[in-house]
Structures are given as C-alpha cells and as structure tokens.
Amino acid sequence: MAANPVLKGGLRLLNAFASSGLAERYGVEEQARELVERAARLGVDLLARGGDRGASEPSAPKRRFDLTPTESQELLRTTMRRFALEVLREAADDADVALGPPAEVLEMAGELGLVELAIPEAHGGAGEERSPVTTALLAEELGYGDMALGAALLAPVSVAHLALDHGTDDQRRDLLARLRAEPFVAASAALLEPRPLFDPRRPSTRARRLGDVYRLRGEKSLVILAERARFFLVSAKLGKETRLFVVERDRPGVSVRPEPTMGLRGAGLGRLELSDVEVPAGALLGEADGFDHQRVVDLGRLAWSALAVGQGRAVLDYVKTYCNDRVAFGEPITNRQSVAFMIADIAIELEGMRLLGWRAAARAERGDPFTREAHLCAVQSAAYAMKIGTDGVQLLGGSGYIREHPVERWYRHLRAAGVMEGGLSL
Amino acid sequence: MIDLEIPKKLRPIAELASAVAAGYFRPISRKYDRAEHTYPKELDLLQAAFAGLSNTDRLGGAGAAATAGSKDAARAPGEVVNGGNMSTVLGITELAWGDVGLLLTMPGQGLGNAAIAAVANEEQRARFGGKWAAMAITEPEAGSDSAAIRTTARLDGEHWVLNGEKIYVTCGERADLIVVWASIAPDRGRAAIKSFVVERGAPGMQLLRLDKKMGIRASDTAVIAFDDCRIPRANLLGSEEIASATKGFAGVMKTFDNTRPMVAAMAIGVARAALERLRELLAKADLAPRYGGAIHAGAHAEVELVRMEAELEAARLITLKAAWMADNRVPNSLEASMSKAKAARVGNAITLRAVELAGALGYGEDELLEKWARDSKILDIFEGTQQIQMLVVARRLLGKRSSELR
Ligand SMILES: Cc1cc2nc3c(=O)[nH]c(=O)nc-3n(C[C@H](O)[C@H](O)[C@H](O)COP(=O)(O)OP(=O)(O)OC[C@H]3O[C@@H](n4cnc5c(N)ncnc54)[C@H](O)[C@@H]3O)c2cc1C
C-alpha cells in the first residue's frame, strides 16, 4: 500500500524541521522530537486503516458539514505553527526593516518542502491532490507567524498552484521543474495595478500577438519578492480576455524597483514595469481558450484572507496575554467590559472570516462555483482584518504604537486586506 | 474533512420549513402583526399536520435540538454527525424567514420544551411529552442577572409551593406548561435555583396581563403571578439537592447552549428575508450585487448589498458551527454565545438598513420590511442580550470568573 503523500509530506516537513538545526537553535529539540514521534505513530495508524480517511474516501463521498481537518492537515498545521512561531515571528522585524525576507528564512522554508508539498506526487512533488483547503490552513499558520513573510513564502507556492491549475502539460513540467531546482526559487504572480478601485478582471496591462511573440506593456504594483523573482506570471488583457503570461525577470523591457509600503514590507514588494516586453508564444499560460482567469482572482482573495486570519489570530493571542497582565486602576484591564468585549469581538469576527474562507476553499476543491463565496470572504476580511489590527493596537495603549510590540507591525500588515489582489493563489 | 455545505439529507427538512414559511406564514404575517393578542388559529392545523413527525424531523422547534443530543444509536464512533441541532437551526432559519412571531408561537415548540428535553427524567418526559411549554425566568427585578430571581419554591409534603412574579413569558398565555425558575433556599444563592414545571390552571397561578410590543406581535408575552401555587413534588426538573454553587446553576444554564444558536438562526432567517426583498426592490432600479470584480467599486447600494450578505454569511456559518459542535458532543458554550451575539446584531442591522435603503417603501406597511426591522430587535435581547453574550465569550476567552468580569 502506498503511503499517503500528504502524510509523507508532513513527515518530511517534520524531519526537515528536526534536522535543520532550527529546533536546536531555538531550544525546542524535545518538542520537535515528540512531534516527529507523534507523526510516525499517526502514520502507522493511518496505514493500518488503509490511508488517510479524508484523502481516500470513495469517489462520491457523502457530503457533510464538517470542520475537522484531516489528520494529515492537522499534522501540517501543527508543524507550520511551530515554524511560524519560532522562525517567522523571530525574523519578522528584521524583514520589515530590510524591505524583504532574510535569505535564510527562504532557504529554511525551501528545506521544509513548502513548494514540494504544493506539487502532487503525480507531478513529481511530495504533495497530495491539489487542495485549496490544505493551503488555507497552511496560509493561516504562516500568517500567524507574520503576514509579510507568509506572503513571501506563499508566492512560489502560488505560482506552482497556478501552473498546476492552468498550465499546459509542457508549461507545468517546465515551471514546476524550475520551482524545484533549488531549495527556494523566487517567483511571483502579478495582477495588481497602481489605481484606486482596481478591478483584477480588467487590467490596463496589454498583450498583443505579433507573429511568434506576445508584446506586453503595462505596470504591476506590490509584486511579492519582486526583486528576487526569476520570473513572473503577469496578468494582461489579450483581446477581450485577461490572461497570464510567463515573463522572465531578465527580458529586455522588464524593470523592477522596490515599492515601500505601509506594511507587508518583509514581503519584498516591488513595482514591475513592462515596456514592450516580448515573450515567446509559449509564455501564454494555458491553452488558447478556456482559461479561467476568475479562478486566479478568487483563489488570490482566499489566500490573502487566510493570511489575514492567521495574523488576526496572532493579535488575539497577543492581546489576551498582554491585557490580562496589564493592571490599571487596581485590577487587570480585562476586568473592564470595554476591553474584554473588544477582545471578544476580535474572536467572533475572526471566526466569521475563517469560516467564510473555508467554505469558499472547500467549494473550490470540490469543483463548485465559488466566485461569490470568495468575494464575500474578501469583503468581510477587508472590513474586519483592519478592525482587528486597529483594536489590537488600541488594546495595548501607548505600547501598541511602539515598535517593540509586534501589534504595531500587524496593524500595518492587516491594512493590506482589501488592498491586495492576486500575487497569491490558495 | 472540511466542507461547509448543507448535506443533502438535511435539505428536505429545510425545504419543508421553507414551504411552510412561504405558503403558510407569509400570507398571515401582516394579519397577526395587526391583530396582536389574537391566537393564530391557523397554526393548529399546521401542528396537526406535523404531529406525526419524529422529534428530529420537527420543523425546528425548541424541543427538537435538545433531545437530538441524547439519541445516537445510529452513530459510529469517530463519525461526524449532522443531526438534530443542525436540522433545527436550518428549519428555524426558514421559518423565521416566514415570520418570527408565528414561529415563536408554534404550539409545542416553546423554549420550555428545550429545558424539559435537556434535563427531565424519564417519568417527566413521559408526563410532559407532547405538551407545549413556555419558559419563565425573567422577573421585574431580575432579567440579565437571572441568578437574582426572587420567586421561591417551598416544599410542603409532596408539593412545591411557588411564590413570585414572572414577566415577559413568551407563550405564557397559550402554553400548556410553564417552566418556572425559583429558588428553594433564597439564602443559598444560585445553587438553590431550580426549574419547576407548572401546568396551566394550577391553583395559585394567575395570568395578570399580556404586554403590547414593538414586534413579534403574533407571539404572546405574559405576566404571570404565583401566589402559593401548589404543584406536585415530582415537577421539579433535575435534582432537589443544593449542589455546589456552580454545578446546579450550570445545569439550568446548559439549556442556553442549545437555544442560543436557535435564536441566532431566527436572526439569520429574518435578515435573509429583508435582504432578499431589498434586492428585489433595488433590481427595479437596475442595482444588483456583483461578485468577482473590485470589492469597493459600484453604486453604494450595490456594495452595501454585498457587504450585508457577507455579514449574514459569517453569522450563518458561526451558527452552523455551534450546532455542528452540539451534534458532535463538543462543548459549545463559547460558540453558542458567539453565534447569538453575531447573528442577532447582524440580523438587526440588516433589517434596519434594508428599511433605509428601500426608502419610503421600506418604511411603509405595504411591505414587510418595516415589520422585520421591528421583529429582529427582540432577538438581540431575549435568551441573553448582546452584552450578556459578550460577557460569556469574553470570560471564556480570558479565563475570567463572573466575579471578575461583571
Ligand atoms: C418579547 C419578549 C419575550 C421574552 N420572552 C421571555 C421568556 O419566554 N422567558 C423569560 O424568562 N424571559 C423572556 N424575556 C425576557 C428577556 O430574556 C430579558 O428581557 C432579557 O434577558 C434582558 O433582561 P432585562 O429585560 O431585565 O434587562 P436588564 O437585565 O435590565 O438589562 C438592561 C440593559 O443592561 C445590559 N446589561 C445588563 N447586565 C449587564 C452586564 N453585566 N454587563 C453589561 N451590560 C449589562 C443589558 O444588556 C441591557 O442592554 C422576554 C423579553 C421580551 C421583551
């Protein structure tokens, strides 16, 4: 019996974590070992039962309302939570200052197999079927660490997803091979343009077919890892359609410059300018027709929302501890309703955002239409991610405004909800 | 495996409830809004039609969910269940879409039924089964602070003797039974608070008056006095022991874990009604919600429609989660309160905003929008106000006792 690929991936991740020296460095060897043991036991269990139930249900499983992650998803979640806390949380401030992630964080993520896991076994990776739900869980954990670094790590994962979802066989093979060539290969999708009320379905960037090549002209904004990326997937209007094009960083006419922002600075955001860039005909992602650009938009929204849910959860955890410890007027400030209720509201709205995202992701995974659900998720996340960010700072008072506390950074990150489009894909 | 769609097997019950709501409730909705205190006799026929259904197939009365928890013969270990709590939430949502007031006065489906189902023993279940039970906790001097009630119950031989006054008793005039909260030892605090089943017509029980209300006028709201009211000793629900302060009271409070998601479901139903109607009215002005494009672009009313839809969907999913947890025996006090807090405030906000956006049409009685905006307000008050839900949520999140976070 073949081992469940996700489980295998999860084990791989754990092993990598345990052996990378990260565990040692952060003094958590003991916990790491326990995790690996737990995973191994789980593996034996699952194999004895014929694999992961969630993954190997009969072809037309009875659908139920269910909020239980599969065991392998749970394992992934636990591992990534640890990585988020011990690596991303620690590196976040430096990345914020440096306007980009430290190379070693990217390498660690590569060693953990983030991209590998995104690629199903059938396509040479270590992952299971393409699963937006699993990615939602992953993104939430990364966001729990730091939304900016989470976005940076998800960028090539998202490119892999886009290649898998939309690429021709050749493109899939080629793009996935490139993403796997080194531990961490930076690549990024670019949809957003610098305009208010930008509609990702109607970019100003244009592509024209000229014999054997396409010529692209336009400008993309807040592109993740812009300066490091080897290549981009750029959205452009081609006739009446909106399509993605593979654009190499070193093509003549491609220029990139840093685009410093309020938050998400650790994601290495940049402006991408395309002045009459010529790309070969094969750079058009997907077949001549039948390209589902809306799916690109929708899965992008869900990825951003999942990251924001994770970051919001970080706020919730932080203010719970801080406010319970903080004493004013002779008692913990959480004894006051206006403080306690603000925290309760964070928890309630976070739950709403998370469930909206899960529902849309599960629909995407099952092949149900999910544009409306993704839209609702984006709308809710735009409203409440920011509210959580601003309340998080408020709850710390003056300290919330001082950079020593991460809520200052999270406030700036969370304003990205409702701003970012594309760049990621669940 | 994560999936948030309603399973096929629960669809028939929701469809049935939806048919009742559209075909039965809506046509008489305005009539009983105007004829306050007149019993909607049409409901008797409805009750007869559904009398044969088993508890879990009920249309969403309070009785259904609480008993669902005690039945699990068909359940394999480790298997995820979508059961009575979820079907109740779905049924209630549909019926509330029809009319919240009528739903609240459906015979046999009172809040007291939920309490009986949750704590009654076998003998009591047999004796009170099939009867319609109201719930009387609130008093003139004790509402949110339900531990402060003053009604007393004194044991006299094989009878309890009740004294006190209850207000705002939903179905207080119409129900067969009233579940009354009273203290058996006023000096012993909340641990001594017990619930008692009083049958209508019990000696010493008197209906003082019916209140006139802003909304849910089809539902009667009674003031009831107990003056040396004698009931059989066996009508006490639960144990006669005065347990530790937390344990006994926690028992009676447990009912709320089941009923709060139901009230949340009502809010979701009435808000959906308002949102759907608003959308129809705006469509005549060529305004429609649009999905997939820029989330901030479009006419203000269009963006508002989508924003309200997102809020409603968030509330709906949190409520389903609370019901799903109950079905699967996962303690859900936190989520039950979250669902009510979120759904009730969203429900009220949406119905009020719908009136505003529909303009004069929304404010006038030709449409039901103004009625829904009146009906929805109660849902943020009874079964624990917004603030009380927030207290529950905050205390749980922060690990606070009620003496610390008051
Ligand atoms: C139509 C209707 C039907 C009803 N049906 C029933 C029924 O069937 N059975 C029954 O027993 N009761 C019923 N009630 C009563 C209802 O449950 C109470 O009205 C409700 O619990 C609030 O109590 P109160 O009215 O005493 O308000 P109060 O407790 O006086 O509250 C007033 C305000 O203060 C706030 N408040 C109170 N305590 C706190 C606190 N600690 N922190 C912050 N804010 C606080 C409340 O949220 C509220 O906003 C019904 C009421 C109505 C109007």
List the SSEs and their pairings.
The complex is a heterodimer of chains A (426) and B (406).
Chain A: H1 5-19, H2 22-25, H3 29-48, H4 71-98, H5 103-112, H6 114-118, H7 132-145, H8 147-166, H9 169-180, E1 187-190, E2 206-210, E3 213-223, E4 231-238, E5 241-248, E6 254-258, E7 270-280, H10 293-325, E8 327-328, E9 331-332, H11 337-366, H12 371-396, H13 398-401, H14 407-414
Helix pairs in contact in A: 1-3, 1-4, 4-7, 7-8, 7-10, 8-9, 8-10, 10-11, 10-12, 10-14, 11-12, 12-14
Chain B: H1 11-34, H2 42-50, H3 62-68, H4 84-98, H5 100-104, H6 111-119, H7 122-128, E1 133-136, E2 152-156, E3 159-170, E4 177-183, E5 193-199, E6 205-210, E7 221-232, E8 236-237, H8 245-283, H9 300-327, H10 333-363, H11 369-378, H12 386-398
Helix pairs in contact in B: 1-4, 3-4, 3-6, 4-8, 4-9, 6-8, 8-9, 8-10, 8-11, 9-10, 10-11, 10-12
Offer a concise description of the structure:
Chain A has helices at residues 5-19, 22-25, 29-48, 71-98, 103-112, 114-118, 132-145, 147-166, 169-180, 293-325, 337-366, 371-396, 398-401, 407-414; strands spanning 187-190, 206-210, 213-223, 231-238, 241-248, 254-258, 270-280, 327-328, 331-332. With 426 residues, chain A is α+β, with helices and mostly antiparallel strands.
Your description of this structure?
In chain A, β8 and β9 form a beta hairpin. In chain A, the strands form three sheets. A four-stranded antiparallel β-sheet of chain A has the order 2-3-7-6, with no helix packed on it. Chain A has a three-stranded mixed β-sheet with strand order 1-4-5. Chain A has a two-stranded antiparallel ribbon with strand order 8-9. In chain A, α7 (132-145) packs antiparallel against α8 (147-166) and α10 runs antiparallel to α11 (337-366). Chain A has 14 helices and nine strands. Chain A has 426 residues and is of the alpha+beta class. With 406 residues, chain B is of the alpha+beta class. Chain B has three domains: 8-128, Butyryl-Coa Dehydrogenase, subunit A, domain 1 (Orthogonal Bundle), CATH 1.10.540.10; 133-243, Butyryl-CoA Dehydrogenase, subunit A, domain 2 (Beta Barrel), CATH 2.40.110.10; 249-405, Up-down Bundle (Butyryl-CoA Dehydrogenase, subunit A, domain 3), CATH 1.20.140.10. Residues 54-58 and 60-73 of chain B have low confidence and may be disordered. At the A-B interface, α10, β9, α11 and α12 of A face α9, α10 and α12 of B. Flavin-adenine dinucleotide binds at residues 111, 134-138, 143-144, 168-170, 213, 221, 378, 381-382, 385, 387-388, 391, 406 of chain B.
